Amino acid sequence: MKASKYPLFTQKNNPSDAEIISHKLMLKAGLTRQQSSGQYSFLPIGYRVLKKIENIIREEMNAIGSAEILMPSVQPSELWEESGRWETYGLELLRLKDRHQRDYCLGPTFEEVITDLVRKDLNSYKQLPINMYQISSKFRDEIRPRFGIMRAREFIMKDAYSFHLNQECLDEWYENYKKAYNKIFTRLQLEYTMVDADSGNIGGSKSNEFHVIADTGEDDLLIDQDGIGVNYEIAQTKYNSDDIKKIIRENNLVHKKGIEVGHIFKLGDKYSKSMKLSIANAESKICNIEMGCYGIGVSRIIAAAIEQNHDDKGIVWPATIAPFKIVIIEIDGHKNESVRLYTSELYERLSAKGVEVILDDRDSKLGNKLNDWELIGVPNIVIVGKSEAETKSVTFKKRGQDDKSSLSIEDLIKITSD
What we know:
This protein is α+β, with helices and mostly antiparallel strands. Helix content is 33%, strand content 29%. The chain has 13 helices and 23 strands. The protein has helices at residues 21-28, 44-63, 77-83, 111-119, 167-187, 232-238, 241-250, 270-274, 298-308, 337-352, 366-376, 386-391, 409-417; strands spanning 32-36, 39-42, 67-68, 74-76, 95-97, 103-106, 130-139, 154-164, 192-196, 206-213, 219-223, 229-231, 254-268, 278-280, 286-288, 290-297, 310-311, 314-315, 326-330, 357-360, 380-384, 393-398, 404-408. Strands 3, 7, 8, 9, 10, 11, 12, 13 and 16 form a nine-stranded mixed beta sheet that branches. A five-stranded mixed beta sheet has the order 20-19-21-22-23, with helices on both faces. Strand 14 and strand 15 form a beta hairpin. Helix 2 crosses helix 9 (298-308).
């Protein structure tokens, strides 16, 4: 990838309407642009990060045997009437009519659709358990969208659903998803915690939230020395303030702020009972299917990662989700043929090793180029000018560090190919 042919939309000035650092940096670094209130387009840099996150999630879902599907985002009202949520979900459910005056909604969640999908083909208990997921756009008509993609009306979410003959099987698969979520957030290289949570309007008997730790988080968490947390709201429902204080004191608990990025639920038969999803077991007894659902806010993870990883120059991405692994910045390559040839050689050799590299061959000053890539947050920065071209070396620096070092091509390839 060469920057002269790649759409970069960085901005020098801070956006006036951005309230939190992730919103500011996503606009300034050219990751997103607002389409309307609570709706954002992903520009090339932002979309690369989004796909990195999606791929990590996809790999871990596939690894536990959850199969990927895709469901329609426009959902018929009849399904929501069956579940009882058409009237109770609230104003976040955006309702609309087609040309025949039939009622639909834009899907904020997909429990009804997936239940209907499974009941059409489930004809034996031997088909169970069934595990399926999708990564798609959701729409919730937030009364006051804010904080950029952190609380948007339209967002990208991974939602998975499991179907079981009995509670024991649901419990087993709930733990499988919990382990997969821990692997996902570990691979994303984010500081996070899992807490007990309220099931809200999704429903069910048990749920857990996954939070990225950040000072700007909206949730109050109590974290122990092992990184295990409890949501303060949940603690308040179980204990009064004096018990809570005693628990904090006796367990050395630390108060931190969190951004919710994942939520898993044991739904039980909440949807299968109302939507008549049942099957005969081996003893010919008719059983309501036990269900679980498992969500991750894919686009929200981008904002949460930035809230946790930034400095005064811009974004400092975890390596696994950075848009590029390395940027080669050439100095006056348009004026110096030896520099242009040398950076092209570097680019080709790194690309041949499978390294995600972008070559900044733009006709711009070194300072402007450096500012752009430190703002965008590429982890490894290579600078090549006349002296580097002559000595067949590079000036290398890590994003977030001020120290620079001189490396040979071989050393650079070794460092960035690991």
